[in-house]
């Protein structure tokens, strides 16, 4: 049974605090711990730090963020909760990285998983192309292009050229006929026998 006295002295910080500042302890006569919640948390953190240091592991410094804010360990910025995705498994209900850092990490992971490239390697490829799309030679390159059969990376294209290759299903014969058609040359197949057509060269 918790004592109904208006307050209690903390054995750690020696402050007179309200009963609500102490966690329950059924082994104590008054049903409360001898140290306030703040002192217990500080003691636990220090104990954790000593255990980590004893096995040669580093301990991150605690950062006090304003109410409704959280520190992103990736970018080092304190941001409002609106800048974080929800995570029901986390103690504070928020993901470990802010939205911007998660997006950056997602792009990096996608590049490596799908193309086997780091961002630095992709940037080097763009520089080697002169900073423009390999096909139209004018638009900024934004999409890594690769052979769907071998997985080999061919270059970095603009959105339109990358989409065009996809529509042509990467077939060189179709792309050549499209070029012939655009140049105004004969492009229609010629009927040489019933059901047999000769395609233009």
TrEMBL record:
Keyword Heme: no
Single Gene Ontology MF annotation: endonuclease activity
Keywords: Endonuclease, Hydrolase, Nuclease
Protein name: Recombination endonuclease VII
Gene3D superfamilies for the chain: His-Me finger endonucleases (3.40.1800.10)
InterPro entries: Endonuclease_7 (IPR004211), Endonuclease_7_sf (IPR038563), His-Me_finger_sf (IPR044925)
Lineage: Bacteria, Bacillati, Actinomycetota, Actinomycetes, Kitasatosporales
A Pfam entry, by short name: Endonuclease_7
Keyword Repeat tagged: no
Annotated signal peptide: none
